[in-house]
Amino acid sequence: MHNQGIIFFERTFPSANMVLIKDEKPTLIDTGFGSDIEETASLIENAGVNIEDLHLIVNTHYHSDHVGGNYYLQKQYGTPIAAHHWDGKLINRLDREIGSATYLDQPIEPYTVSKMLTDGDEINTGKHTFQVIHTPGHTLGHISLYNQEAEVLITGDLFHRDDVGWLNIFREGVSAINRSIESLQHLQQLSIKEAYSGHGPKIDNPKQSIQRAIDRFERWVENPKSIGWHACKRVYAYTLIIANGMPKDDIEEYLLGCPWYHDFSRYIFQESPEQFVE
Q1: Residue 114 — left, alpha, or beta (φ > 0 → left; ψ -120 to 50 → alpha)?
Q2: Residue 126 — left, alpha, or beta (φ > 0 → left; ψ -120 to 50 → alpha)?
Q3: Cα distances (Å, whole numbers) of residue 212 to 153, 182, 221
């Protein structure tokens, strides 16, 4: 999808979508899953941008499906990386929970953030300028990017066309759901013609998708178990895709070895992991 040099790549799950700004200073928003780096490189090259000419990588947040290609691009081409300063400081000090990698058993090769972003910063690519909007919820350092002239919003995993990003309240805090609602209400004030999220197709009716996301989160406030069910389905589906399936007899042992499973079973569903596995 092209919008005056703003090129949206819808990618197959579990890799995250990417946005390439084909401009005087070519800029890539998110880099997909690390194991998909060959496809990532091909998408960039086929769009008419030499991969070594990338001026900047901007990450919407630090989850592995969004930053997995960072290591290769930085090591091979020295591409600088920008992220919200809360994420950037964790990444640069090699925090063990970068991208929830330990939590989700999805390791990330180390990389360095050289451009620390904060709310209100601007990223200029030549003809385009994107405003950095701090939109915490899915992660504390989550950002969205807004191009006022084109009325385009890059949303990361705050919301999708017909879904929302899962909430890891054990990493991001129990207020993550309220932060998500506030972030969405902030975005409601913008004039947006179309939006590109981290997963799924482009969003042709952003206002409708934002309101649906707010409504869903507000229902979750009243029923916290919904946070748990949504997260468990998303995280385990992710595992099944990466592992190309799992024998039924192996499921119980696998789940009982997962930190995320223990957290959700004990604190959201208030059952022992052995009981909840059924």
Answers
A1: alpha
A2: left
A3: 17, 14, 14
DSSP category for residue 264: I
Q: Which amino acid is at 130?
A: F
Query: Residue 109: is it exposed, middle or buried by C-beta count within 10 angstroms (0-12/13-18/19+)?
Result: middle
Residue 107 is predicted with a pLDDT of: 76
- In angstroms, rounded to a whole number, what is the distance separating the alpha carbons of residues 264 and 253? 16
Tokens of 6: 């703003």
| Architecture of the domain defined by 2-222 | 4-Layer Sandwich (3.60)
Pairing mode, strands 2-3 and 129-134: unpaired
Tell me the domain boundaries of the chain. 2-222, 225-276
The pLDDT score that the predictor gives to residue 2 is 56
**Beta strand pairing call for 81-84 and 56-58:** parallel
Q: Max Cα separation, the chain?
A: 57
pTM over 0.90: yes
pLDDT 10s digits, 122-152: 999 999 999 999 999 999 999 999 999 999 9
Report residues of the chain scoring pLDDT below 70: 1-2
